[in-house]
Design goal:
Elements: H1 3-12, H2 19-31, E1 35-36, H3 37-43, H4 49-61, E2 65-69, E3 75-79, E4 94-97, E5 103-105, E6 128-131, H5 134-143
Parallel strand pairs: 4-6
Antiparallel strand pairs: 1-3, 2-3, 4-5
Length: 145
């Protein structure tokens, strides 16, 4: 996404497109996978960590970003490309690599539905598969020869 599309994307979610917000959204989009506050701080060393944190909170609160906990003790964020606030058509499973500690989107795969007992109401689903990513799996295969 170019800067103009990102600015429109922010505006469509009720967020004023400042230079810092555009920069953070652009970094998130370019990462191509869910990123943590620490990872964004490393990607954007000239942006104050507190600005990144406040921006991520704003994005999350305005349904512009998903947050997920992958078991790494860090919350990760990814841009949400849903068409409406009331229905999330951008839900997909994630894969956490136990070697490199990166989380990847498994786009195109559906999160399996579950039937909850009476009285329970789901608000979100967090589906994480853990193992070795292709890069780490290949390294592991080479080392074990």
């Amino acid at each position: 996404m170019d800067k103009e599309k990102i600015a429109d994307f922010l505006s469509s979610h009720g967020i004023r497109p400042t230079a810092g917000r555009i920069l953070i959204a652009e970094a998130m989009e370019e990462a191509g996978r869910p990123v943590s506050l620490t990872e964004l701080s490393d990607i954007l060393p000239t942006v104050d960590r507190s600005v990144i944190f406040r921006t991520l909170s704003l994005f999350h609160g305005n349904h512009l970003a998903h947050s997920l906990e992958d078991g790494s003790e860090s919350v990760r964020y990814e841009l949400c490309h849903s068409s409406s606030e009331g229905h999330d058509d951008d839900l997909h499973p994630h894969f956490f690599c136990t070697s490199c500690h990166k989380t990847f989107c498994l786009d195109g795969l559906l999160i399996p539905g579950i039937s909850l007992p009476e009285g329970y109401k789901a608000e979100s689903t967090n589906y994480i598969v853990k193992g070795l990513c292709p890069s780490c799996s290949e390294k592991s295969h080479v080392w074990n020869r």
